[in-house]
Design goal:
The complex is a heterodimer of chains A (about 775) and B (about 425). By secondary structure, chain A is mainly beta. Chain A is built from five helices and 46 strands. In chain A, strand 5 and strand 6 form a beta hairpin. Chain A starts with a helix and ends with a strand. In chain B, the strands form eight sheets. In chain B, strands 3, 28, 29, 30, 31 and 32 form a six-stranded mixed beta sheet that branches. In chain B, strands 5, 6, 7, 8 and 9 form a five-stranded antiparallel beta sheet that branches. Chain A: One of its GO terms (cellular component) is cell outer membrane.
Chain lengths: ~775, ~425
């Protein structure tokens, strides 16, 4: 713990060095030439890029600057940049209203080329965060999880095509350690009808990936990091509608629209749909249904029972910019999902009738107010409650092989005779209060309350446990302090108090004795982050968090079967997460610019919960048995040449090792000590480039051509000391062509993914789609 | 046209990158460079997640490693069952994940070879060999579906027959449901040991609850699995032995003279004695005059599984704690004894390691009066050899691996 203490010491010294310089404030309103308000315009001092702000939904902004002369730069997508000279006097407020002129050449695609604007705010925070600008991807058919794959340190592993199961890995942490948020609300209880693998990229304005150290506003036991989807909230009147059609009979549609009246009344509607037959070709061993013996001969066959569809509808009504609220929205999300299951966790068996359904029924509430009761006191609250029902149905009496042939049998259930219905009740409330003492000190209190209750019932195998829900109540209270010493140094310190209460009617030993069990775990976590501008274009960052993940009800009490047992003695998993990074932004001249971002990460995970197999009984029981260490490097680079060309690359190397030297009850060094954690890519990267062509038929049309490369180096499926199977090196190439008319109002895109039709696997033997084509038509009206 | 030029530049660049980054088609490999003798002991080792079959000619001393490609990798941690000395079968035991069953043999070169995979739609609980067929089954523990599902697999040709279902409510005949715990051949008949359970029919939480824990049942079936009759005993001991979780193994043994001995753990009831009953050659009833009270002979302990080494002598694995016998894995089974069922002698095995964490499926070497147990302790796992003549256990070969779960012997195909 010497390292931790040392880091805290540094922070303390920084905090002690508080000094008060003389500052003044500039406020005003940003509009178009026609007087229409412009929210989210970026306002910053040219003299020092660390003084910046953004206009609110009313177009208003306020920026505090050191005394003296400044050149203010005001920019927003689609408008010409404007510069204003101002003189700031200590303690005085000056008003500067700005009217921006539309940029006739500006197109959406330029965001990726030239625009940093709002992303910069996030990127330059002291945390190890990557913000993906989603807007340049809005003409593609990507879902959010696919867009995430382009971020260094992130791998998204899928079991198949559209709608298939996915597992996000972030610097060696997987699934349960990485938490997802949408506008700061935890997505844990959203059910699978509304998840990263079915939400189209068009819903997101940007996606923020917090590696290892997670700001307190995301109160969650996210041991390994957090991913936050930021949706379009600022725009007042717009329509974004698109439809795409692609290989494997894939249809995707999306509509996102908002209307805001002068009275402040606002109505927003988002609807999307995905459908795919997922009938891509795979290599499979064919079972002879007469003999029940596999042929052993691998044949190329089409998937025949893998249809996926989902519908989601989100509506919100409320008010913006009223005296009682900057934003008060009441909404409802409805989601419905149907998913055919083609095979279990390996490809040997083919199913022909098994399916799952999922439903999201979720009212939600958002409230935001700046300067509530008193100046500088900002309050926000968001809450939701999901009460959808899910089902898992496996009651067919047919047995299939990979050719789609079947025989009838007497026994129902292709896998395990089930008609299981889950009734989930999930609620989340995120409350955030920030008080800014003066321009330098800000204190934030954040609380996230999460409740979960699940009642399940298997119609074909009634159990005494059916009558009792399994329940979780999780509360995370955070206190944060932010200190901005000057334009160069920025420090945040925070602490989180975790409380987790789980209750379940269970039989943890599987000895037939059910009882109602509850247990509560508590932990105190803490961390900090600092950033310093060594040069105006060179920023250094460091952050640390002692993070926890509390055991789930399933880990404590078992899965309710006689195979996966519970362990009521489990301790929370903990991790020391360190990040050191640097960002260098080199503007060579007016046309060439290069941005380099490198970070070194260190993760030391203790009391890691893993399922331990009992060799004599074949059962699994979770234990705090593992100890894992990761040292890794994430690297990102982007080069821009004017608004004609951009190229980027991201690269990740992680040295993720098993550090458990002696297993429980053992006196010999484990044979897998210091092995790489198996079945986990450790060397991978992306590269992309795009060309943008203007003036094709007329000034308002644009053509863009993009290429994306994905590389994953060979990795071991199992513990490497044993020399078992490997997952081979994989390379995939994707090409995107987009033609935009009328400044991005009408868009046609063509894409070809996996153009060389390579065999791609994220999981052992589970083949992903080969070459696929798609066309997307999109209508985008920015304001009306 | 500036646009045209830019377009060609872009296209050229795309082509170059695509060409440069083509991958070669690696395939997954799993190596096996172990022993190449035509008769080998095969040990199932694991790295905690996946299994490795390791071959060795000698087992009394030395060390063999599953590391570095020396073992044949088998995905997952299946349950192993040796069909005679011909094939090692891997059965996936996971109710929610049944799957393909694969068997491994020694080829003429003495190398392990995977045979064609078989499709079984149920997890396998009890198994037995009848001539050249394995009878393998799964008993439901839910009164809503009162069946036991059998398959037969020809150990040589791998031909599968089934599923054949048995009505467990009818078989029990006492208002409960039959739950099969052992399968054994006697001449041209199958002796199938079972216990009866409530299977949730009482609305209770424990599917294995029973009012008949002091009954012993052996059903007699013909080769086609048609019920002939049920042999029953009451009040002396409990159901046929050897249950761990849902899996029952051993307990019925037909000796050279045709007499059948039936062992019982007397599970789930501290008041019922663990013991041995006898069915005389050619008869269809328990011998009223024969009862070997193991609980009494061992000063209160109960037996778990039984391995016959010949000459009326069995090596018996016992529950560690007195008076306890349960299917639950938290009841350890770390004691061993040698019993003679005719003389009714009981001798504790000496030399058993103190720090056993688990005991795997053993190899019975009847020719040498020995049973070879794979045992995990606080050090690397070892094979331990019980000599029935002296009732002693000695440490054999070390296996460099995280765990071992089974050992058997395979002879190469001729």
């Amino acid at each position: 713990m010497i390292k931790t203490n040392y880091l805290i010491l540094i922070f303390s010294i920084c905090c002690a060095a508080i000094g008060f310089s003389q500052t003044g404030t500039v406020t005003g309103k940003i509009t178009t030439k026609d007087g229409e308000t412009l929210p989210m315009a970026y306002v910053y001092s040219k003299n020092s890029s660390s003084y910046y702000t953004e206009s609110d939904e009313n177009g208003k902004y306020a920026l505090t600057l050191p005394e003296g002369k400044h050149t203010l730069l005001i920019s927003i997508l689609g408008y010409l940049k404007q510069e204003q000279q101002i003189q700031v006097f200590s303690g005085k407020t000056i008003t500067l209203n700005i009217a921006l002129e539309e940029d006739p050449d500006m197109l959406l695609e330029d965001v990726s080329v030239t625009g940093k604007s709002i992303l910069k705010d996030v990127q330059e925070s002291a945390f190890n965060v990557v913000a993906v600008d989603a807007q340049p991807l809005h003409n593609t058919t990507l879902d959010i999880s696919q867009a995430l794959e382009r971020v260094s340190g992130v791998r998204v592993r899928r079991t198949g095509g559209v709608g298939s199961d996915m597992n996000v890995m972030l610097n060696g942490f997987t699934g349960r350690h990485v938490k997802f948020f949408i506008d700061g609300i935890p997505m844990e209880g959203f059910s699978s009808a509304f998840q990263l693998n079915n939400i189209p990229i068009n819903l997101a304005k940007r996606v923020e990936v917090y590696k290892g150290v997670v700001p307190i506003t995301f109160g969650s036991d996210a041991l390994g990091g957090a991913i936050n989807i930021v949706t379009e909230n600022g725009k007042q009147n717009f329509i974004d509608a698109s439809y795409s059609y692609g290989s494997f009979n894939t249809h995707k549609s999306f509509v996102n629209a908002a209307y805001t009246a002068d009275s402040g009344f606002t109505a927003r509607l988002t609807a999307f749909q995905n459908y795919s037959d997922n009938d891509y070709k795979v290599d499979a061993d064919i079972l002879n249904l007469d003999t029940n013996i596999y042929s052993g001969e691998i044949r190329e066959v089409r998937r025949f029972h893998d249809m996926y569809r989902n519908y989601t509808l989100m509506g919100k009504i409320g008010f913006v910019n009223k005296s009682f609220a900057d934003q008060l929205l009441l909404g409802f999300t409805w989601g419905d999902e149907y998913n055919q299951v083609q095979h279990p966790a390996y490809m040997k068996i083919a199913f022909g009738d098994k399916y799952t359904t999922s439903q999201t029924l979720m009212p939600n509430l958002t409230y935001r107010k700046k300067d509530l009761f008193t100046k500088n006191l900002d309050v926000s609250l968001s809450a939701n409650y999901n009460f959808g029902e899910n089902a898992n149905i496996d009651d067919s009496t047919r047995r299939y092989n990979w050719l789609g042939e079947y025989v009838d049998t007497d026994e129902p259930g292709e896998f395990n005779y089930t008609r299981m219905f889950f009734k989930n009740r999930n609620g989340a409330v995120n409350t955030n209060v920030t008080y800014t003492v003066n321009e330098k000190h800000a204190i934030t209190v954040n609380n996230v309350l999460n409740t979960f209750s699940r009642k399940s019932r298997n119609e074909v195998e009634p159990s005494a446990a059916d009558a009792y829900p399994s329940e979780t109540l999780k509360n995370i209270l955070g206190l944060g302090y932010k200190y901005k010493m000057n334009e160069k140094l920025d420090v945040s310190l925070f602490s989180k108090y975790y409380y987790n209460q789980v209750g379940q009617y269970a039989d943890p030993e599987s000895d037939g004795e059910y009882e109602h069990l509850t247990t509560a775990t508590k932990e105190l976590g803490y961390g900090g982050a600092a950033s310093y501008f060594i040069l105006e274009n060179l920023q250094a960052k460091a952050s640390y968090e002692k993070a926890y993940r509390l055991p789930t009800a399933r880990e404590l009490f078992g899965a309710g079967n006689d195979f996966e047992l519970g362990n009521t003695d489990l301790k929370p998993e903990s991790s020391d997460n360190f990040n050191f990074g640097a960002n260098y932004n080199w503007v060579m001249n007016s046309k060439n610019s290069l941005n380099l971002d490198a970070s070194f990460i260190y993760r030391d995970i203790k009391d890691f919960i893993r399922q331990v197999v009992s060799p004599s009984t074949g059962t699994l029981q979770p234990g705090n048995e593992a100890k894992v260490q990761n040292r890794g490097v994430d690297f990102e680079a982007r080069y821009n040449y004017s608004d004609f060309f951009t190229a980027g690359a991201s690269f990740t190397y992680q040295n993720l090792r098993n550090k458990l030297k002696y297993r429980t009850g053992r006196t010999v060094v484990s044979t897998i000590y210091d092995d790489r954690i198996p079945n986990m890519p450790y060397l991978y990267g992306n590269a992309d480039f795009s060309f943008f062509f203007k003036n094709i038929r007329n000034k308002e049309d644009r053509l863009s051509l993009s290429y994306n490369l994905l590389y994953i180096h060979e990795f071991d499926y199992s513990w490497s000391s044993y020399g078992g199977r490997k997952i081979p090196t994989q390379v995939a190439h994707d090409i995107y062509v987009n033609y935009s008319m009328k400044n991005g109002k009408y868009n046609v895109s063509l894409e070809c993914t996996n153009i060389l039709n390579e065999d791609l696997y994220d999981n052992f033997s589970l083949q992903k789609p080969g070459r696929a084509f798609a066309i997307k038509l999109r209508y985008f009206l920015d304001k009306f | 046209m500036l646009f045209k030029k830019q377009f060609y530049v872009a296209l050229a660049l795309a082509t170059v990158i695509s060409t440069v980054s083509c991958s070669d088609d690696d395939t997954s490999t799993s190596g096996s460079e172990g022993s190449t003798a035509t008769s080998q002991y095969i040990i199932a080792a694991d790295d905690t997640e996946n299994s490795y079959l390791v071959g060795t000619e000698a087992i009394t001393e030395g060390s063999v490693s599953a590391l570095g490609g020396n073992g044949l990798q088998v995905i997952g941690t299946p349950r192993w069952y040796f069909y005679k000395e011909l094939a090692a079968f891997s059965f996936i035991y996971n109710q929610s994940d049944p799957g393909a069953t694969q068997s491994f043999i020694l080829d003429t070169e003495g190398a392990l070879e995977a045979r064609s995979e078989l499709n079984l739609t149920v997890s396998i609980q009890s198994k037995g060999i009848f001539n050249n067929k394995m009878y393998i089954e799964y008993s439901s523990r839910n009164y809503e579906s009162p069946v036991a599902t059998f398959y037969t697999v020809n150990g040589e040709t791998e031909a599968i027959e089934g599923p054949i279902t048995i009505d467990t409510e009818a078989l029990a005949g006492n208002g409960e449901y039959a739950y099969i715990t052992d399968v054994e051949q006697r001449n041209d008949e199958l002796l199938i040991g079972f216990r009866t359970i409530k299977a949730g029919s009482d609305g209770g939480d424990n599917a294995f609850a029973s009012d008949f824990n002091n009954h012993t049942y052996v059903a007699v079936y013909n080769e086609a699995l048609e019920l002939q009759q049920v042999i029953e005993d009451e009040g002396r001991t409990g159901p046929v032995a050897g249950q761990s979780r849902s899996q029952g193994e051993t307990g019925i043994e037909v000796l050279e003279n045709g007499d059948t001995y039936v062992f019982s753990s007397a599970i789930d009831d501290a008041d019922v004695a663990s013991g041995v009953l006898k069915i005389n050659d050619g008869e269809y009833a328990f011998d009223e005059d024969y009862f070997f009270d193991i609980s009494a002979a061992s000063d209160g302990y109960k037996l778990y599984r039984t391995y016959y080494v010949g000459e009326n002598t069995f090596v018996v694995q016992m529950f560690t704690d007195a008076a306890s016998a349960s299917a639950s894995p938290s009841y350890t089974r770390n004691k061993f004894a040698v019993v003679n069922v005719v003389n009714q002698t009981f001798d504790w095995v000496t030399g058993v390691p103190e720090d056993i964490s688990s005991v795997g499926i053993p190899y019975v070497d009847a020719d040498s009066d020995e049973v070879v147990f794979p045992i995990n302790t606080s050090t690397n796992p070892h094979l331990y050899i019980v000599d029935a003549a002296t009732a002693t256990m000695t440490e054999g070969i070390e296996v460099v691996a995280e765990n071992i779960s089974a050992v058997g012997k395979l002879n190469a195909e001729e």
